Amino acid sequence: MHPTLADDLSRLPEILQSARDVAAREVAGIGERPVAVAGPAPDAARLPEHGAGADAALASFTERWAPGFSGSAGPRYLGFVTGGATPASVAGDWLTSALDQNVSGAGGSWAQELERETVAWLRELFGLGEEHSGAFVTGATASNTVGLAIGREWLGERLGVDVFRAGAAALGPVDVLSGSPHSSVTKAMSVLGIGRDRLRPVPLLPGNREAVDVAALEAALAEREGRPAIVVANAGTVNTVDFDDLRAIAALKERYAFWLHVDAAFGGFAALSPDLAGLVDGLDAADSVCVDLHKWLNVPYDAAVQFTRRRDLQVKVFHNASPYLGLPDGEPDFLHLTPENSRRLRALPAWFSLVAYGRAGHREIVERNVALARRLGAGIEALPGLRLLAPVRLNVVCFTLAEDPSPERVAALARAVEASGEAYVTPTVYGEVPGLRAAFSNWRTTGADTERVLAALAKASG
Q1: Where do the domains of the chain lie, and which CATH numbers do they carry?
Q2: Which molecular-function annotations from GO does this UniProt entry contain (predicted)?
């Protein structure tokens, strides 16, 4: 064994303690450190010829790179839809690395069964029935891709084509109908050979909405004269967290042939709150569902889950035919269900957080975040320099400048907020108007944090 590696092995407890001390120091100060970091990164270093050991690597990281990392795990990072990492999920994630289980198959480990248990808990958390099976993937993009891949195979089943053998071209043109699809949907269409241009936008409801007009969707389905399609519905759009009427869309399946995929990346968490659960009524009727866990479940990147009613079609698409991997009979190993063969035990951080805080703890995070988003929205309405672009429907506040919201002025506002170190928000365009989004999904965020964000916005827009 290389002498430096051997020395690190002999000192592993001390090395882990040093890493723990660095992590604890960084996390302890995350509420007060600048939320975003500007300025150039260090110059690129040369690849070391002779390693210096883990202690030196930790020291180098702490000195050169740690100061430039954002406070994205902290309470005032409101960009994208970014959760933090609960204490229990961090512990689970550290153990995931330390135990280093490959969850492609059973492999003499109970890790695969832990993932099955975690998926079952999540299925219950989101109000799905036992007919939905699931698997962990990296994020919403992978989850949407898996769901649409299964839907593509379903189209083949309807048309008498084995797509997993003959390829997507054997289907002919495939149409994907949606009102306000996330950009990852068209990315998935590109990856799957469906083609980005096969997206068929469906008119939205009037009145500043992002939800699909179900009557217009029915008309679009009727025009297909029986040819099956894929419908992507939204349980929480990115800009304004609007929800399609999932129950009404699912009812159309009685008259029209389509695969219903629901993108519930973060909106699906509305199911945790009795006051909000009506927003996702009908989610259980979907053929496939995407939920992103490193958003509102507040587990570390990267973790999402994918659910479907048609595991048999999922196995057709993703099975790996090799003698040393075994055949996907009975309860298939996870390598037969997702694009990956080698799979990290992403379920363990989620398992830790669910055991530690339960349904009630995660419900409190969701309800607090929603209340704080509404609080920020009300504060923005009271500021003379800003205005809301849409009502605060759940956990995202979409707003812009009250006067002359040009791309340049809105971008300058975002830079000013970022430079303050108090908050981070991301740009968007809604109704052809440049704006900003503040998304509340971090377990740490409090009312005091929200007031600091509001003060930063007031100063930057004043």
Answers
A1: 35-42+54-86+358-462 (3.90.1150.170), 102-344 (3.40.640.10)
A2: transaminase activity
The residue behind tokens 């071209």 is 169
Confidence of residue 330 (pLDDT cuts 50, 70, 90): confident
| Both structure tokens of 182 | 């996330």
List pLDDT tens digits, range 399-418: 999 999 999 999 999 999 99
> How far apart are alpha carbons 260 and 230 in whole angstroms?
6
Kindly report the pTM of this predicted structure: 0.96
Number of DSSP helices (H) and strands (E) in the chain, helices first: 15, 11
Spatial contact of 297 and 83, defined as CB atoms under 8 Å apart: yes
- Asked if 168 and 194 touch (Cβ cutoff 8 Å), the reply is yes
CB 359 within 8 A of CB 90: no
Short-list 443, 442, 438, 441, CA closest to 453 = 438
What is the C-alpha to C-alpha distance for residues 60 and 95, in angstroms, rounded to an integer?
24
Question: What would you measure as the largest C-alpha separation in the chain, in angstroms?
Answer: 71
Q: Which helix (H) or strand (E) holds 200?
A: strand 199-201
- 427, with CB counted inside 10 A (0-12, 13-18, 19+), is middle
Q: Which two structure tokens, joined as six digits, stand for 18?
A: 């040093």
